[in-house]
Every structure is written in structure tokens, then in C-alpha cells.
């Protein structure tokens, strides 16, 4: 796998690990469907996320990855996607998915609690849970053609964040291009 892609994913995940505490609120009636113009997906989230762009280089080209994040009611939600300028070979897919899903917790000194293969429609993915100093990390990563989608949720504990985290993660849907 391309080392620059590995470095990009690690950098991206380090930038998304910031977490701050606020009042927990479980009212999900105000959630919105978020679907950025060029994202080809929709997801439910409790408010409009902020967007920033992360640049990355590979041996085969330069690109920008949009990063959407929101911290609300003690929970941090992150959505990003990365378009590869080349096809990911079948033998590299699982390695890429595992690395993408685990890097967010392992790069900050946390530990992986579970890691399992999942799918979204016909596309491969990974679901990872981790822990770090009382913070729970959940991520799902999907490889859809040449696009890698990464969803992350940081919660203060399993008890306080489970319902909102699962609503966010399970609401991710692909849109027809």
C-alpha cells in the first residue's frame, strides 16, 4: 500500500481525535439528514457539521479530502471521504479498511476492543470499537469503488453515547451518482 496514503490517513485521524465535554442530551428529534453536494451519501447528524479540507499527496497524484465534524452533547461525530486516483487491488482492500478504521484509536494511544468485517450494500467495510481513558471510539469504514468513506464517533462512555452513536453510524447511506 502506498506509504503516503497511510501517512494521510494517520494524519487525518489524529486531527479528528479532539474531544471536549458538554452537557449530554438524548433528544434525537432535531437530527438532520446531512448530504454534502459531492459526497454521494447521506447520514443523520444532530446539527450541521463544520467542514474543512485536508490535502494529501500520493505517488499517483494530489487530492483534497473533505472533513465534516460536529461536537454536540458530549459526542464528536466525524465524516470524511477520500478518492483514490487509482484502483485499490483486492489484496489490499482489507488492509486499507482495517488501517483506516483502527488508526483513529491506535494513533492516540488507545486500544482496539473489536474489529469486524461489515458491508454496505455490496461494498466491503470494517467496524472498529476502541477505548482510551474512558472515551469510547467507534468507526466504520467503507470502500466504494475508488472512494474510502470514514465515519467516527467519540463518546464519553458506552452508556451515554450508544444510542446517538448507533443512530449516526447506522444512518449512513449511499446515494445514486
State the gist of this model.
The chain has 177 residues and is of the alpha+beta class. 24% of the residues lie in helices and 45% in strands.
Estimate the strand proportion.
35-45%
Overall mean pLDDT stands at 82
Strand tally is 10
| The CATH fourth-level homologous superfamily | Mog1/PsbP, alpha/beta/alpha sandwich
| Alpha carbon gyration radius | 15 Å
For the largest sheet, list the strands in their spatial order: 3-4-5-9-8-7-6
Oligomer: single chain
CATH class type: Alpha Beta
Overall geometric form: globular
Q: Which regions contain 5 or more consecutive residues with pLDDT less than 50? A: 19-26
Helix content: 10-25%
Distance between the termini: 27 Å
Architecture blueprint of SSEs:
Elements: H1 3-15, E1 32-34, E2 41-45, E3 50-58, E4 61-72, E5 75-83, H2 90-106, E6 111-120, E7 123-132, E8 135-144, E9 147-155, H3 158-170, E10 173-174
Antiparallel strand pairs: 1-2, 2-10, 3-4, 4-5, 5-9, 6-7, 7-8, 8-9
Helix pairs in contact: 1-2
Give an overview of the whole structure.
- By secondary structure, the chain is of the alpha+beta class.
- It has a single domain, classed as Mog1/PsbP, alpha/beta/alpha sandwich (Protein Transport Mog1p, Chain A).
- Helix content is 24%, strand content 45%.
- It contains 3 helices and 10 strands; from the N terminus they run αβββββαββββαβ.
- The chain has helices at residues 3-15, 90-106, 158-170, and strands spanning 32-34, 41-45, 50-58, 61-72, 75-83, 111-120, 123-132, 135-144, 147-155, 173-174.
- The strands form 2 sheets. A 7-stranded antiparallel sheet has the order 3-4-5-9-8-7-6, sandwiched between helices. A 3-stranded antiparallel sheet has the order 1-2-10.
- Helix 1 runs parallel beside helix 2.
- The radius of gyration is 15 Å and the shape is globular.
- The chain starts with a helix and ends with a strand.
